[in-house]
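Support case: user asked for a sample of complex input and structure output to validate their parser. Sending the pair below.
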Amino acid sequence: MNEVEHIIEVKDMVKNFGSFTANDRLSFHVEKGEIFGFLGANGAGKTTAIRILCGLSYPTSGEIQVAGHDVYREREKIKKKIGYMSQKFSLYEDLTVSENIRLYAGIYGMGRKQIASREEQLLDRLGISQIRNRLIREIPLGWKQKLAFSVAIFHQPAIVFLDEPTGGVDPVTRRQFWEMIHDATEEGITVFVTTHYMDEAEYCDRVSIMVDGRIDALDTPAALKQQFESENMNEVFLKLARR
Amino acid sequence: MNRFFGFVKKEFQHIFRDVRTLMILFGLPIVMIILFGFVVTTEIRDVEVGVLDRSMDQASIRATQKIFSSGYFVPAGYLQNEEEIGELFRSGKAKVVVVFEEGFEKNLQRENRAAIKLITDASDANTAQLSLTYLQGVLMTYFQSVNQDIQLPWTVSVKSRMFYNEELKGVYMFVPGLMALILMLISALMTSVTITREKEFGTMELLLASPLKPREIILGKVTPYVLLSFVNAMTIVLLGFLVFDVPMMGSIWLLMLECMLYITLALSLGVLISTNAKTQQMAMFISMLGLMLPTILLSGFIFPIDNMPKVLQWFSSIMPARWFIVIVKNIMLKGTGFAFIWKETLILLGMTLFFILASVKRFKIRLN
């Protein structure tokens, strides 16, 4: 069909935990190269959905394709094409900056030479060459977050999944972080990001808003604001939640 | 394959950068074996013995001398009357009192019989029991030697030998037991903790979302521990051999193979624990309480299995350590080959398979 354009295609995705329905017939698609915001309150089912798309858990039913592969049968292929960053900025605290980069690059099957040259580039771009041999536990949270993101896209995946990537960092760092996300899309990487900061939704090309396991709205931020006659995304969200 | 090696390397880095892990991994086995070897002993040495001699004749004095020249006992002084015995025990100055009756030598010569009373402080039952046995042994040998010149119509002489451990050394017991305990502790405890740590820090999610397969993740995490546990096992054998003269009668290769099997078993148990524990503390708690204590108490390491109540005997047969100890003793002390331990080996193999299957199943449930 149109896999080339739609890098993620989800149709009637359902995930039940016992009698509880975490994802209730979700249908949406993500276009190649866009920043897709996946919004919702805590417990709305964002993490459940992102875990299914990353191959960390199986859906109960539905047709789901990620990067042109089926999530039931081709998980291994999907995993090679995606990057994932969790809300904990999970790097190994007792390894150095450089060791962390090399570890993940190695896991994604990159060659030694390629790793070395891209590592130089990355450290230069972030301006952290001087701390390459410092342990992660010794560097500030803001740097950890940037580094975690850089590591997640180090192997140049088709899509990167960011699960609440800006939790606990200050507004300035958050701003810088979104600039990094923008740079990534210029390299052709599609970004799928969950957040509960509504102001961040403005940075996305399109956003979906989840309430109680369902997607209640999905469009560009501008269209959503118009539709709900709101000044900003926060208002849109509040109106949706009160419905 | 490169992917996998990079991952194993990282696990080694975790181990060698954490002082606490290193201490448990290398310090603990050495400290334990030295402690158990020297401190916990089933032999008696320098037990204080008080003497209440009512006759003070040649026979009783000789007997007393014999007791103290045996090397097991030291004098705690002479007592004057029975009342002092209780006082002596209460003050802790003696564990045993030997009482010679009045006219000891006279009775021996006239009636061919005389009585010695042995009284022990049995608040420490083990020492009391052992001291009694040793004392009786010393006295019997002495009086037999005195009687040698006298022609008796007939005599029965009992000669005993302790096969496989002629001197009844405690270390012979402890080295196999400690091997079972330490390997279980290190392999199961350390793997369960290191895997739950990845879960706690959220790095497990990243690994699972990566092209690494779940079995590669688990294998990568346990591989360093397989190697290090194996080094530990050999250290224990070597320490036992060099410091405590524990013999190595059988094949060292067979022993190594059996150690590998037991290590694999303990590691798969550790993986199983980690699939059930959410935090490192939890994993540590389960490993300590669920593995350490039963291993010490029910494996036959310290307390003989045959003396346990039936229910506990059944329970002890699900202790992997029980079978491993039998195997190690057979190889090290008796020098037997595989023909005598295949049954125990098979049991360990079965348990290993069971734990691996159970953890795989648990892992799958978690993913769904």
